[in-house]
Amino acid sequence: MDRGRPGSQHHVIVDRLGTPLAASVTDGNRHDVTQLLPLLDAIPRIRGQRGRPRHRPKRLFADRGYDYDVYRRLLWKRGIKPLIARRGIAHGSGLGRTRWVLERTFARLYQFKRLRIRYEHRADLHQGLLELACSIICLRRLRRSF
Q: Is 1 within 8 Å of 39 (Cβ atoms)?
């Protein structure tokens, strides 16, 4: 880890209701956009109707940290429409209406003290705690729906 920014970052991809689909932990100094494609690949296939299950989103909403043309092209090749705010343009892109879903999920994750303050030295243990917290959020969501 570099001295520039100590700690770790949590990267989470959620559905439109805020249910975590995939999550990862990286060093604090790693750029967010480097985790975009691994998170998309980590989305599990969903069982349901007959035929091929959909495991990629139709659209991807993201903030200015993901505004790179290379990644926009890679998303288009995967059949995903990127709705990413542009850097250097004034606010008002309309992403605030959808971004609150992700911020609410992070607020739920950080209710777990072990994620808010990292005590583990090993990254695999912290990754396991992040996945456990995502599982608890999914379980609570299922309980509310029944």
A: no
pLDDT at position 134 over 80: yes
Statement: the pTM of the whole predicted model exceeds 0.90: no
96 close to 103: Cβ distance less than 8 angstroms: no
Rounded distance between C-alpha atoms, residue 8 and residue 2, angstroms: 11
Average confidence (pLDDT) over 37-63 = 80
Question: Are 122 and 8 a contacting pair, CB within 8 Å?
Answer: no
Cα–Cα dist 81/61, whole Å: 9
List, in order of start, the domains of the chain with CATH numbers: 8-145 (3.30.420)
Alpha helices by DSSP H, the chain: 36-41, 69-77, 96-109, 113-116, 123-145
Answer whether residue 93 shows pLDDT above 50: yes
The residue with tokens 């609570």 is 140
Dihedral sign for Cα 71, 63, 7, 16, please. negative
- DSSP letter at 27 equals E
pLDDT band at 17 (very low <50, low <70, confident <90, very high): confident
